[in-house]
Amino acid sequence: MPLNGPALGHLQILLVEDSAEDAELICDMLEQAGVAASFQRVDDEDGLVEVLSSGRCDIVLSDLSMPGFCGMRALELVRELHPRMPFVFVSGTIGEEMAVQALQQGAADYILKHSPGRLPSAVARAVREARSEAERARVEAELMRAQRLESMSLIAAGLSHDLRNILQPLLIVPDLLKTRSDDPRIHQLADVISECGLRGSEMAESMLSFVRGSRRSSERIEVERLFNAVDLLLRGSLPSKVELHTELKGSGLALDGNFTELQQVLLNLALNAIQAMPEGGRLQLLAEPVTDVDGCAQLCIRVIDTGIGMPSDVMERLFSPFFTTKATGTGLGLMSCKRIIEGLQGSIQVTSQVGEGSQFDLLLPISGGGAVRSESIGDLPVGNGQAVLVVDNIATRLSLLGNALSSQGYRLSMASDGAGALHHVQQHGLPEAVVIDTALPLMPASQLLRELRALGFSGPALLLEDPAQPVDPAALADSGPLHCLRKPLEMQHVFRAVDAMLAEAANASAPA
Ligand SMILES: Nc1ncnc2c1ncn2[C@@H]1O[C@H](COP(=O)(O)OP(=O)(O)OP(=O)(O)O)[C@@H](O)[C@H]1O
Ligand SMILES: [Mg+2]
């Protein structure tokens, strides 16, 4: 076997050659050497361009001079159309200067017709080199893509961390407002702000878990709560001529999913519907149990509008990324709805009539049961002057936590790092409980706790942990009672946690 190396397979060889006999000789020579190939021959520019743009070709073997065409021009065209296609000159004569020029322009080799013995190995080598070059480029592109993703995930992680800190006040302030006012309008506005804060921070987390490749956490969601949240967010922006109607056909309808993602789906659909009704109309959100073709129970959520409707060419491209008919649209809304719904093993069905309206049906697996996330603020527990030390290096969160806890009746002291906390304790005595952010710079939370215990602190500690860096209580090796709350914080959860841990500590120390 004259051709060593990896198998070439069956080659498509394009000959640029005006002489049929010479072409015949080339084919024979290659076949005798064991090169399995099909041949095509062209002898002018049009023919070459046609074959190159229509069919598959593995290598071009070209004569140097032909009547009305020239090998150098053929090389130029091949380079233009397929920069990596191997190209070998097979010519009666080729001067030294011309040979150098040919190689410089990207020819892989040149063979003289009167001594063609090297032709098969030159063809095999040129094809193999081109293939390994293509493979190298593919791997390089793959690596670049992986590196880009890697840096994007770092940026997203950083952004979502900062975003969570910025949104923190939106989660804390509304609860404070509600405890300080009986005005129902203030309560409603506070709900809007806290819903937005929650949505924003969950989105930041969703972005993080998406780049990390993990699924968003799933929970049992009551459709009624979902509709209420969407209703709350839409009310403020609903044009006066659009009437919003929500209806649940059935009680206790629920599904398993991520609340923020589902809320985002309904908001996207509702906003599209509102935008489709510039003259006003009726927007309906309906939920009902349905049975699919296999008789399985499913949940159907319908978003129906009486807007402009969609012609078939819009319907066909609805879910394509960046498809929009709006001057300022991104064309990403429906794509992201589809991604979320399909991630929940659901599907979206669309029907529409131009001039009459559109209907988007979300078909989702119905929830089997489980704990429902409860959002009722209820009666918040209050303290009775217990000393609580809060240690957090994020100034806004520190002052909000401090304000909130002291407004609930605790005696607050605050420090922005471990050294400050220890100094405070040495000056003013031990607190009854501590609240410590686990992302403290310099002195980590674990060390601060150890130092506090060494100073005689035996009360409960509430650790505010970063979802990206969960705390392992065993690794902390702390001797006292430990509690954890995940950031972003909701003030009511902080109040409940502080109350519960102080009560637990009081019970533990009470005489039996
Ligand atoms: N309810 C609807 N009625 C009529 N047309 C719709 C409706 N929903 C979507 N469309 C059409 O589908 C297109 C794509 O919607 P999608 O939500 O993906 O992007 P967008 O709304 O154009 O942009 P963005 O969501 O960023 O505002 C819209 O531009 C619109 O032409
Ligand atoms: Mg949209």
From TrEMBL:
UniProt cross-references to InterPro entries, sorted A to Z: CheY-like_superfamily, HATPase_C_sf, HATPase_dom, His_kinase_dom, HisK_dim/P_dom, HisK_dim/P_sf, Sig_transdc_His_kin-like_C, Sig_transdc_resp-reg_receiver
PROSITE patterns found in the cross-reference section: HIS_KIN, RESPONSE_REGULATORY
Signal peptide extent: none
Keyword Nucleotide-binding: yes
Domain Response regulatory: 12-128, 387-502
Keyword Secreted attributed: no
Domain Histidine kinase: 158-368
Record-listed 4-aspartylphosphate modification sites: D63, D437
EC number in record: 2.7.13.3
A GO MF label: ATP binding
Keyword entries, A-Z: ATP-binding, Kinase, Nucleotide-binding, Phosphoprotein, Transferase, Two-component regulatory system
Catalytic class of the enzyme: transferase
Reaction(s) catalysed (UniProt annotation): ATP + protein L-histidine = ADP + protein N-phospho-L-histidine
Protein name: histidine kinase
Lineage, uppermost ranks: Bacteria, Pseudomonadati, Pseudomonadota, Gammaproteobacteria, Lysobacterales
